[in-house]
Design a protein that fits this description.
The complex is a heterodimer of chains A (71) and B (447). Chain A is mainly α. Chain A contains one helix and one strand. Classes of the chains: A mainly alpha (71), B mainly alpha (447).
Chain lengths: 71, 447
């Protein structure tokens, strides 16, 4: 495998890792909003209720990089 | 970042067949997954995406009010718009065969209407006669002892106890309370679950906790080599559901499980279950009865609830059904599949949140999970003939270890059909779920 190709792969994996870290941070923020009692949550936050949509999923094609399984 | 020019440049460089052939399996699969996301999301114009995000965000709140007020008319225009935009997405993404295939693929890669029609057809053909026989059986469970108040704090303590028994890692997660239970995996070191405690229903919290624990065990036990990659998660919603349903139904509703843990449950509620023996309790938690609400359904009729939703989603995307007609269609299908008619839309077509968020294609995952779980159970029992002796001894570790080795650690390294074939030797086969249900419930109901 050429050095150039190996560098590309390393660059790709580092890029994905950074992307995942951003998504995880968003996931934590959203968890706090979702599990906070409604009165304490930001008015724009979804009510403490049924769904589990996160900003990560707010695209038409869910990336499925952060799992969220509803009962 | 997933749709950036930088990502496009990296994917172009690494997607070339000559290059990908030289890659290790992990990098190759990472590129495949990223490219699928990139290609799909880049096809959506940003303004349409923004419109959709705003629409679904508003729609969820409208749905909540509509459900509360039994007011389908207020939700209808939102749902119509969500369906219309999804049809636009499908045209932009492209599709093979049925338009709905594109939506199914988002949750269960490779799944199609053709395959689902076949497996659901087989399942329904066998489930309905079994349900009829159960309803006609004189051996109906005594559930009267469940009609009492169970302290919320004690329910929580029992949930925490069971989570420890199942091997949930509290160093990599936590249990919280919510209205609708769910599990979220941020990364394998942070997998959080929620449950709900209903004062008048002690079984609900136990089963919800075990269910969400099944999801969490999957996410907590992804192989370390996949950490920090886009493969560090469940490969599909169907496989994910197989893990939750395996623990909830096949283990958590088994006689062996309650032979081991019923005494612990009794101790958590002093005096409340003393006059109920384990056989009575076991029969009660395996009560089969057509009901209106999917999330409260038993493991047999649950699949019929899913088939109703599947038929409707297919109809919405092939143009044979209109949103305005959904309340009537929903009620007619419940009559046809389950023999009951919802008295209101709140407990009918408005009961689930999924459509308000545009989650079309998600519902079949639940039944696929049941089918995968039964298929996995069959293989596990062949390799571990003393499976239920282990459960009865409270030794759940070997079962968890088998799932980690065969399913969890692989993350998204294999596609769902490839994974299930590697573990069980064949592709998805509904026969295992049918046999499991027939065998279990013929015994429970003395058929």
């Amino acid at each position: 495998m050429s050095e150039q190709l190996q560098r590309k792969k390393d660059e790709f994996r580092a890029y994905v890792k950074t992307m995942k870290s951003y998504e995880e941070a968003l996931g934590v923020l959203y968890w706090d909003l979702r599990t906070a009692p409604r009165a304490k949550a930001h008015p724009a936050a979804p009510k403490l209720s049924a769904s589990c949509r996160t900003p990560i999923f707010a695209c038409p094609y869910p990336t499925r990089w952060a799992s969220c399984c509803r009962r | 970042m997933s749709v950036s020019d930088k990502m496009g440049e990296l994917l172009q460089a690494l997607s070339d067949p000559g290059v990908s052939g030289e890659s290790d399996n992990i990098t190759r699969r990472m590129v495949e997954e990223c490219k699928k996301d990139y290609d799909r999301n880049r096809k959506i114009p940003p303004e349409l995406n923004q419109e959709y995000v705003v629409l679904t965000s508003k729609a969820e709140n409208v749905w909540e009010d509509a459900k509360h007020n039994d007011d389908f008319a207020s939700f209808q225009p939102y749902l119509e718009k969500i369906v219309a935009i999804n049809l636009q997405f499908i045209d932009l993404w492209g599709y093979e065969g049925h338009k709905y295939n594109t939506l199914l693929d988002m949750y269960e890669p490779g799944m199609t209407v053709e395959k689902l029609d076949a497996v659901f057809g087989t399942l329904r053909q066998r489930a309905v006669p079994l349900l009829q026989a159960i309803q006609a059986s004189p051996h109906q469970p005594d559930r009267s002892f469940l009609q009492q108040q169970f302290a919320k704090e004690q329910q929580k303590q029992f949930s925490l106890f069971i989570l420890k028994e199942l091997g949930y890692d509290f160093e990599a997660g936590r249990l919280d309370e919510t209205v609708h239970p769910f599990a979220t995996g941020l990364n394998p070191g942070d997998v959080r679950i929620t449950t709900r405690f209903l004062p008048d229903d002690v079984v609900s919290a136990v089963m919800a906790t075990v269910h969400e624990c099944g999801h969490a065990l999957y996410e907590q036990n992804i192989g370390e080599e996949l950490y920090g990659t886009n493969l560090a998660g469940g490969v599909s919603m169907g496989i994910h559901e197989s893990q939750s349903r395996f623990w909830e139904n096949m283990i958590g509703r088994s006689k062996a499980f309650w032979n081991r843990y019923y005494g612990d449950l009794q101790r958590h509620f002093p005096g409340q279950l003393d006059s109920t023996d384990v056989d009575t309790f076991f029969h009660a938690v395996n009560h089969i009865e057509p009901s209106l609400i999917r999330i409260e359904a038993d493991e047999l009729t649950y699949n019929l609830h899913i088939m109703v939703r599947y038929e409707i989603e297919k109809g919405l995307f092939d143009g044979s059904m209109k949103v305005a007609d959904l309340p009537e269609i929903w009620n007619a299908k419940y009559k046809e599949y389950l023999g009951i008619v919802p008295p209101s839309n709140s407990v009918g077509v408005l009961q689930d949140v999924h459509w308000s968020g545009g989650s079309f294609g998600y519902f079949p995952s639940y039944s696929l999970g049941n089918m995968y779980a039964a298929q996995l159970l069959n293989t596990l029992q062949q390799q571990m003939p003393n499976l239920f002796e282990l459960v009865e001894a409270g030794n759940l570790q070997p079962i968890k270890a088998w799932l980690v080795e065969n399913i969890h650690r692989h993350g998204k390294l294999y596609q769902p059909n490839e994974l299930i074939r590697r573990v069980t030797g064949e592709e998805l086969n509904p026969e295992y779920l049918i046999k499991y249900l027939e065998q279990k419930y013929k015994a429970v109901y003395g058929l």
